[in-house]
Amino acid sequence: MTESDMSAARLGYAHARELAARDAAHRAHVERLLLLCADTLDDFDRLLAGGPARDAEAYRGSLARIAERFETALRGEGLEPIGVPGERADPATHHVVGVRPSAPAAEDEVLEVVQRGYGYAGRVLRGARVVVAVPGDGHGGGNEQGMRQEGERE
Questions:
Q1: For 9-54, what is each residue's pLDDT tens digit?
Q2: What is the pTM of this model?
Q3: Phi and psi of 40, rounded to 5°?
């Protein structure tokens, strides 16, 4: 075996070790996320076993705490929620599903978040589905709530 062959073999071995380490890190990350989801499922199982029979308000509070813990854990893993009422809709991160005349709100201001969007590592995983403001006083056409859906004519 020549020196060139030995060098190529060492390089190939180093590359294979690097790929194996990257694969192990990815697997560990996925396992951590799955355990996080399993913990949340356990919380739901405990809550559902008791049921809302006695105190509906306490039941709702327990659901809210589970959702908050789950969201906090996912944020800790890098999940970034997208979509807040009051912000300006951005085509890169928001999908407008309806418009509503609103005198006090700025044009394209998010009035309602129908479904939150999410990002991860600077990429949009899912855009937020939002209802935005258009100029007007809210006393004109549209449907009974003064809102037009995508594709609806004035």
A1: 888 888 889 999 999 999 998 898 889 889 999 998 888 887 766 7
A2: 0.67
A3: -65, -40
